[in-house]
Fold PIG-L family deacetylase.
Amino acid sequence: MKKRFLWIAMMAFTLVFNLKAQDRPLQIIMIGAHPDDCDIKSGGTAALFVAMGHKVKFVSVTNGDAGHQSEGGGMLAKRRIAETQEVARRLGVAYDVLDNHDGELLPTLEIRLQIIRKIREWKADVVIAPRSNDYHPDHRYTGVLVQDAAFMVGVPNVAPDVEPLRKNPVFLYFQDNFKKPNPFQPDIAVDITPVIDKKLAGLDAHQSQFYEWLPWIGNYESEVPKDPSKHKEYLLAKRVQQPNPEVRKTLEKWYGKSRADQIKYAEAFEICEYGSQPTEQDIRRLFPMLGK
Ligand SMILES: [Zn+2]
């Protein structure tokens, strides 16, 4: 309890300090293929930004209308949109769902323009998306679509109905475990141990996914606890990775060894070669939750 109070006090101090240090809150946009991808990859980091007074938007490029074994189409999309709005309430983020079919995403010009508009409208300082190496074609093409938007967000003649960004955001990738043609490189790692319950609360809002669809497609339906009071424990065991040795090394870089040794849960990001290339100082400004 005492620890929790200290953490809240620390966050309140950092909030005032950070908002003073710059004239407006940071605006972070995370872009996933499905209406639970951002939550899985960086729900904890989002919760930390929000606790520090910054603004986070999650975008799902598809409406999730294929993600169920016995439901589908418009009714499923509706159910999943409602789940995202519950996440928005629980995490304090904005959550937009683009109306493109799940399982059928292609990197078209039309969808590239949708993404350019979302990044511009949010006046994003940081954009986070999947890499384009992935088992799921929707994830892969979301990666391509965001890479294709990285330069165009500043070009006035492209999507001229929305004002272009004068400063190119920093583009980052979510962590993944794919190795070919090249493995994920954790350039930034965020300690999410203090907000792990928030992250789990976000995941828990996706009832159709974590308790129905994913256990069905993964053939582990019998592992889902019937008792909802056991759901968070289940999500923690099933959906939260322990930091691997590379991520541990990155945590040491940003937080120092003694704090890094205490960290139980982390989310990591790789810097994309497109968009603004941040210095170490820029990263500390854009990720004010990192240790000194
Ligand atoms: Zn997904």
Q: What stands out?
A: The chain has a mean pLDDT of 94. The chain has one domain: 27-286. Residues 33-34, 37, 136, 139 surround zinc ion (CB under 6 Å).
